[in-house]
Amino acid sequence: MTEQTERHFRLRVSGMTCDSCNLHVQHALAGIGLQDVHADWRRGEAAFTIPPGREAPPLARLDGALRDAGYGAVSVEPAGSVSAPAAPASDRAGGEHDLLIVGSGSAAFAAAIRARELGARVAMVERGTLGGTCVNVGCVPSKALLKAAELHWEAGHHAFAGIHTRARRPDLGTLVEQKDGLVEELRRDRYEAVAAAYGWDVIRGEARFVDETTLDVGGSRFRPGSVLIATGAQPWAPPIPGLRDAGYLTSTSALELRRIPRRLAVIGGNAIGLELGQLFLHLGSEVTVLEALPRIAPFDEPEVSAALADALRQRGMALRAGLTVEAVGRRGRERVVRITERGGQSELLVDAVLVATGRRPDAGRLAPERAGVALDERGFVRVDAALRSSNPRVWAAGDVTGAPQFVYFAAYEGTLAADNALGRSGRSVDLTGLPRVTFTSPQAAAVGLTEAEARDQGYGVRTTVLPMALVPRAIVNHHPEGLVKLVVEDGSGRLLGMHAVAEAAGEMIQVGVLAIRHGIIVAELATDFFPYLTEVEAAKLAAQSLGRDVALLSCCAG
Q: How many angstroms separate the CA atoms of 139 and 405, rounded?
């Protein structure tokens, strides 16, 4: 093989964001005598050739040329001659990637996007379906089915006189096919296409650590500058005797059912259990929710828990709390759930059991002990406030860290971890103003501290509870159930917490997020403009109720 006399180089470039950047970078580098310049903003790189007998310009000169055009040179390295054969994948281990991300969910994608924006060379490893939990088996499919089931319910139960609708028996198989089509479309357009647009490598296979600096993926070894573990979490079932043998549904498999169970027991009365329980309730199932703690939605304000329970019971859901599920068995085609409740024992006969008792990580599959990556007693990766693990080259973000399991928080952590892993920020995780929403009908949402948490932290507090029956939008919608509770620091008027049960509580709660994160006091909320006949107006009315009787206001008095 004849060796080429020309030498080829690869230059990492920061600041490129579009096709026009390619042209600007190419022109700048050609201006200092480089040949065959080709820039790719998606990969954050420029390739160029040095003619025979010339030395490659130093990085400082390359950076100077690019700075004049508004970009920056990060590093330069030989790319080999054009005639050199490609190295086999198993040999490509010499730090080709600045960041290797294990997983492809929201934390992983947010990290990859941020890293590419910083000009880093990125690879993403995925052993299953690209996109992680949210788009494939979590938020997207569940909320699509929840909306469909709500429409089916409303067709037979709306409160408007003179409007005659009825709900025919739903075709769950056809609905699930539509849901699957939506998932495939979003996975293609928002994940596969995004990865291609930003130009990072997607490596298919099971990743396992070999040592503190090396990962093996299907026999190929990689030694990146940093590793980000973003493998998420999976549904977890408690060790209830007989449960595995009897068979049960999870939040994943429940979304694949093609037939509606006539009677359904849901073990777990928090967000996922209530959402999926109501999904099947609205489609026609007899649903009983079983919760070990004294009330459903046990981590919300007591007023929120009570209001949500009332609304769910009015729609026909059976709620049983403060109990122990002793065992699950089979009796023919039925499942038998054995329960101890208030000292007595009973049996519940159902056609299916759905377990919604939380999620646990699967980080152990990575052999983290080989890399010195510590896990906690539940299997979550231990990280510090900057999301660095016990191995300084390994970071973790999202559900695998035991953080609040919300897709938007996983994305936040992914971006932060990428910044820190690439040495660009040194930021710490900040949970201030983190909202949560339970997508039942009505919705439940919260941000900030509960009243008990605020008092435990030493705050002097004032609280107010506004019934949604005083909110004009709820009245005209014939959906007056629910409430808004504000927890306010006495003296300063600073909002410490906002908690709501309402049709649009998930949208309404953003008022509380902004107030808490940006120091908007409740007196300002009480006098700000809020559009009339929206549910978000409840936030203003709740703020006003701290100093006046809003029941004595006319509908649109502000």
A: 11
Q: Given a cut of 60, is residue 421 above it in pLDDT? A: yes
d(CA 373, CA 383): 9
- The pTM of the full predicted model, rounded to 2 decimals, is 0.84
Give the CATH class of 243-356: alpha beta
pLDDT at 558: 64
Q: What is the pLDDT of residues 115-141, one digit of tens each?
A: 999 999 999 999 999 999 999 999 999
Q: How far is CA 361 from CA 209, 230, 378, 405, in A?
A: 17, 10, 8, 11
Both tokens assigned to 509: 């709660």
pLDDT at residue 6 in the model: 65
Task: Tell the burial category of 555 from Cβ atoms under 10 Å away from its Cβ (0-12, 13-18, 19+).
Answer: exposed
Q: How do 215-217 and 286-291 pair as beta strands?
A: unpaired
Whose tokens are 């909002």? That residue is 495
Q: How many CA atoms lie within 13 A of 453 on its CB side?
A: 13
CATH 3.30.70.100 for domain 7-82, yes or no, is: yes
Q: Where are the alpha helices (DSSP H) in 88-138?
A: 106-117, 132-137
d(CA 13, CA 25): 9
Residue 412: both structure tokens together: 């936040």
Which SS3 state, helix, strand or coil, does residue 374 take? coil
442 upstream amide cis, omega within 30 of 0: yes
Domains of the chain, by residue range, sit at 7-82, 99-133+174-235+360-421, 243-356, 435-552
Question: Residue 449: is its pLDDT beyond 90?
Answer: yes
User: Could you count the other beta carbons within 10 Å of the beta carbon of residue 394?
Assistant: 26
CATH ID of 435-552, from 3.30.499.10, 3.40.50.720, 3.30.390.30, 3.40.50.2300? 3.30.390.30
CA distance linking residue 5 with residue 65, whole number of Å: 25
Strand extents, DSSP E, 45-168 = 45-50, 72-78, 99-102, 122-126
Tens digit of each residue's pLDDT (9 = 90 or more) over 163-221:
999 999 999 999 999 999 999 999 999 999 999 999 999 999 999 999 999 999 999 99
pLDDT at 289 over 60: yes
Residues sharing a CB contact under 8 Å with residue 308, sequence separation 6 or more, in sequence order = 274, 296, 297, 300, 438, 440, 442, 444, 482, 501
**Backbone torsions φ then ψ of 243, nearest 5 degrees:** -60, -50
- How far CA 502 is from CA of 117, 444, 468, 475, 487, in Å, comes to 39, 7, 7, 12, 18
* Domain 99-133+174-235+360-421 and domain 243-356 have a common topology: yes
**Topology of domain 99-133+174-235+360-421, CATH:** FAD/NAD(P)-binding domain (3.50.50)
